[in-house]
């Protein structure tokens, strides 16, 4: 994990989200592609990756670390899944390159009914607005991932998926303890570039 910023004691979640979004907007296309490639390589170098079969990724928005490279690299060797927003919840569905549609928030999601029980996932690659050195994550504010991850985080360590938070270096902080809330699910690993 990389860390390049410290929290201000007066920082609120809203201010943090707004500030990070502004910094991400300044990242150029080439730098985004390089960061995505580096993050994919770092995930592949995790010892746990060697035994992973079922991976849930996310379909990236313009202000998130792109996942196209991960999908391209892993679709032939792993079963890939993407989230779908149904009501206020995330449902996990099989990734099919030719069967995607724009969902509730303009995010590309599977256009199929091939949903699965998330307990079969071995790894979940999770976006966020900010992360810290201890794995704390601040999301976009809707709570979708926290609600989705809550039952999985409660499973025993050997039966739950590895939670991998990913982002750009500018999304890494030394500590988010001042803004973290009890419902914020911690990541097992955070990788940035």
Architecture overview:
This protein is of the alpha/beta class and 193 residues long. It has a single domain, classed as NagB/RpiA/CoA transferase-like (Rossmann fold), CATH 3.40.50. It is 23% helix and 24% strand. The protein is built from 4 helices and 12 strands. The strands form 3 sheets. It has a 7-stranded mixed β-sheet. Strand 4 (100-102) and strand 5 (108-110) form a beta hairpin. The longest helix has 16 residues, at 29-44. It is globular, with a radius of gyration of 16 Å. The model has no long low-confidence stretch (mean pLDDT 93).
Care to count the β-strands?
A: 12
User: Number of helical segments?
Assistant: 4
Radius of gyration: 16 Å
Low-confidence stretches: none
Q: Bin the helical content.
A: 10-25%
For the largest sheet, list the strands in their spatial order.
Answer: 6-3-2-1-7-10-12
Helix- and strand-based class? alpha/beta
CATH topology: Rossmann fold
